[in-house]
């Protein structure tokens, strides 16, 4: 298991309550949780509490591939931070920070060993950018 952390972030032009709600609401998650237009998130379950679980189905729109991205929350501080452990034991830490009328989201996650770090960074960043676009539309 790699102990290398990868960092991504984005500044969302929206108040923190709106950002928090859109990030954690399964109906919203299904709309933004993809890294490219040829993927989608057909289902999302989210029990946002310590010990609660989330499961988001990630699927190629052409039906060629799908997988569940899932984990268990280890820390939830409303309007501030979320930490979770993924099914493969990697961890992720998210921070939500008010910056005037905007909200900065920063994410630090454990790199996995199957794909290059830059590919992982780009994939996670693309999903975060998709979230930003969803909230700002």
TrEMBL record:
Ranges where the Activator of Hsp90 ATPase homologue 1/2-like C-terminal domain occurs: 13-136
A UniProt-annotated Pfam family: AHSA1
Alphabetized InterPro entries for the sequence: ASHA1/2-like_C, START-like_dom_sf
CDD domains in UniProt: SRPBCC_CalC_Aha1-like_4
SUPFAM superfamilies membership: Bet v1-like
Entry similarity comment: Belongs to the AHA1 family.
Protein name stated in the entry: SRPBCC domain-containing protein
């Amino acid at each position: 298991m790699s102990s290398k952390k990868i960092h991504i972030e984005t500044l969302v032009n929206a108040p923190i309550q709106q950002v928090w709600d859109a990030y954690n609401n399964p109906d919203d998650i299904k709309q933004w949780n993809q890294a490219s237009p040829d993927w989608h998130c057909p289902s999302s379950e989210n029990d946002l509490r310590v010990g609660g679980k989330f499961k988001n189905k990630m699927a190629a729109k052409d039906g060629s591939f799908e997988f569940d991205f899932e984990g268990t929350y280890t820390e939830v501080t409303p309007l501030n931070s979320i930490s979770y452990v993924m099914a493969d034991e990697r961890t992720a830490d998210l921070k939500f920070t008010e910056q005037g009328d905007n909200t900065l989201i920063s994410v630090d996650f454990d790199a996995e060993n199957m794909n290059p770090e830059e590919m992982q960074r780009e994939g996670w960043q693309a999903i975060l950018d998709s979230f930003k676009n969803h909230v700002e539309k």
